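re: ur question from yesterday

yeah so i grabbed the chain u mentioned. its 337 aa long if i counted rite. heres the sequnce exactly as i have it in my notes:
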Amino acid sequence: MSAHAPHGGVSVVICVYTEDRWEDILAAVSSVRAQSLPALETLLVVDHHPALLERLGKEFKESEDVRVLANAGPRGLSAGRNTGIALSRGGIIAFLDDDAVAERDWLRHFAAGYDDPLVMAVGGRTEPVWASGRRPAWFPEEFDWVVGCTYKGLPRGKVRVRNVLGGNASFRRSVFDAAGGFATGIGRDGDKRPLGCEETELCIRLSRARPDAVLLIDDRAVIHHRVPAGRERFAYFRTRAYAEGLSKALVTQSVGADKGLESERRYATRVLPAGVARGVRDFFLARPGGAGRAGAIVVGVLTTAGGYALGSLRARRTGATFSVVGIGAAEGGGGPS
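ran it thru and got these C-alpha cells back, copy pasting raw so excuse formatting
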C-alpha cells in the first residue's frame, strides 16, 4: 500500500452550514489531522453563514493546514463542494461530512486506490453513530442510506461500483476537468428537504466522459457518521425516502433510466425482498423489531417509488432543473493528476 502522498497530495473538503454542529465540525477536522497519511490541507467551506464563517476563521486563524472559505456559488452542498474543488491544491480531493469523523487510515486507503491510473474515484464505508446509542429496532440496515451511511446490500471489500457516496469519497482532480463539478439544484440545501443523488449524477457523467474510468469502494476507508435523534424517527425515514425518489427522477431525466437505475434494480429485486423475508422470519422467531423492519422496507420502497413517479412527471413537464458548471482553476495552481 502506498505510504506517500499521491499525485500532489490529498485535499480534504468539509462543507459546513450551521453553528449547531460546531463540536462536530471541530471533531471532523481533528480526525483529518490525525490521519496516518497526512492531508495536504483541509478546506472548510461555509454555506452562506457569515457568523459561522467568522467564528471558524478565528478558530483556525493560526492554522497552516486548515483554510476557511465561503461558498462562492448558490446555497447548497453541491456548490460548496465545487468551491472547495476550485480552491484546493491537491491532486486528489476527498470529501468528509461535517458531522462525521474519519478513522486513522481513511486517507491511506483512499490514496492506495490511485496507484492504478484508471481509478478516478474511491469511496469508503460510513458507519452510523445513533444519537440514542443504538439502532432503532424497526430501522432496516438496507435503508441506512436514509441517514447517509453504507447500507446492507452494497458489495464488501475493494470493488468497482457505479457511484461512490458523497459524504465519504475522493476523486482525482482530472475528474472535474473531464466531467465538470457537482450539479446544483439536485442535492441538499441545509436543513430543507433532504434531497440527494448529486454524487450519483456526477459519477455517471464521469463514466460517460471517461468510459475507461474505474470507480471503487474500499470498505477499509471508514468514517463514523452521527445520526441525530430527529433522523431516528419514522417521519424522517419517510421524508428522506420520498426525497430520494424525487432526486432519482431528476438524475434519470438527465442520464437515462438504464444508467440512472442500474444499481437500484438489483437493490429492489434482490436486497429488499431478502430484507423483508428476514424481518418476517425474525417476527416469527419473536426477535425484536422484525415486523417493524419488514414494514419499514415496504413503506420505504413505496414512498421512494411515489417520489420517483411524481418527480418523473414534473421532470417531463418542465425538464431537468439542475445545472452543471465547470470548475475554475485552483488558487495557487492545482496539483498534478
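noticed a couple things. The radius of gyration is 19 Å. also The longest helix spans residues 290-318.
anyway ttyl
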